[in-house]
TrEMBL record:
One of its GO terms (molecular function) is nucleic acid binding. Keywords: Hydrolase, Protease. Residues 140-184 form the GAG-pre-integrase domain. The keyword Cell wall biogenesis/degradation does not apply. This is Retrovirus-related Pol polyprotein from transposon TNT 1-94. PANTHER family: RNA-DIRECTED DNA POLYMERASE, TRANSPOSASE, PUTATIVE-RELATED. GO terms for biological process: proteolysis. Pfam families: gag_pre-integrs, Pol_BBD. The lineage of its organism: Eukaryota, Viridiplantae, Streptophyta, Embryophyta, Tracheophyta. InterPro entries: GAG-pre-integrase_dom, PolX-like_BBD, Retrotran_Ty1/copia-like, RNaseH-like_sf, RNaseH_sf.
């Protein structure tokens, strides 16, 4: 195999392996903390044992921190365990039209891209774009300014963003009046319905018609009577509007009792 392409820009090009159980790095200078090991070996798929020189953590960029990375200088490339990467971080690995993308599950921000090269899947992690001047500038901006610039985000979301970048710390004494007003709920509207205290104190009447098509019995109007307290409804079919003068008195005599004799009808 031609190994020249494997050694090009090796710091930020990692071969991703879905079957590997551990991350493997060949560059000692990439470790920001390191522990030497002796008499430890890793078994390769071809049944070959390779000595592990050390183990510790590697910070690839602002988003990716690899733990328990095996240091094996005899390897010709850096190996990234996809299973371990996803288990230790809130990431998702998705396939697009021409490549694979690693995203943060919380913010859905793209973290890296994997592309095929001579039968291997290489992962490209962008280097940190923050310099000390950027960091100093971010720290000079107060928390209340960042809170407004970020759309009045809650504190837990701000802390999440601050951990991914470097922003001013949360000011516990700051209270945003806009957020307080936005969280207020409108009081419920008062009920506009006012019902009569007693049955048949009030009746509502309405006539509808004429129908475009007459009924089988030649009716073309109907009269609706609604009792105000119970909302109980009676419907009477009419052939003419003038029939109301007959139907309504008959209805009143029908419902009249010793306890309800006076009605207001409209």
């Amino acid at each position: 195999m031609n190994t020249h392409f494997l050694l090009h820009n090796i710091t930020y090009r990692w071969v991703i392996d879905s079957g590997a159980t551990s991350h493997i790095c060949r560059d000692r200078n990439m470790y920001h903390s390191y522990t030497s090991l002796s008499d430890y070996y890793v078994m390769l798929p071809n049944s070959t044992k390779v000595k592990i020189e050390g183990i510790r953590s590697i910070q690839l960029n602002d988003d990716i921190h690899l733990h328990n990375v095996l240091f094996i200088p005899s390897f010709r490339f850096n190996l990234l365990s996809l299973l371990k990467l996803l288990n230790e971080n809130q990431f998702q690995f998705t396939m697009q039209s021409n490549n694979f993308v690693l995203q943060d599950l919380t913010t859905m921000r793209r973290i890296g891209i994997a592309k095929q090269d001579q039968g291997l899947l290489f992962f490209y992690f962008p280097e940190s774009k923050f310099t000390f001047n950027n960091i100093d500038s971010c720290n000079l901006v107060s928390y209340d300014t960042w809170h407004k610039r970020l759309g009045h985000v809650p504190i837990n979301v701000y802390n999440l963003i601050a951990n991914k970048t470097i922003l001013s710390s949360v000011d516990s004494h700051f209270h945003c009046s806009t957020c307080q007003l936005a969280k207020q709920n409108r009081l419920s509207f008062s009920n506009p319905n006012h019902f009569s205290p007693n049955f048949f104190d009030l009746l509502h009447a309405d006539i509808w018609g004429p129908f475009r098509e007459l009924t089988y019995d030649r009716f073309k109007y109907f009269l609706t009577l609604v009792e105000d307290k119970s909302r109980f409804t009676w419907i009477f079919l009419l052939k003419n509007k003038s029939d109301c003068a007959i139907v309504i008195p008959q209805f009143l005599s029908y419902i009249e009792t010793p306890t309800c004799k006076n009605f207001v009808l409209f």
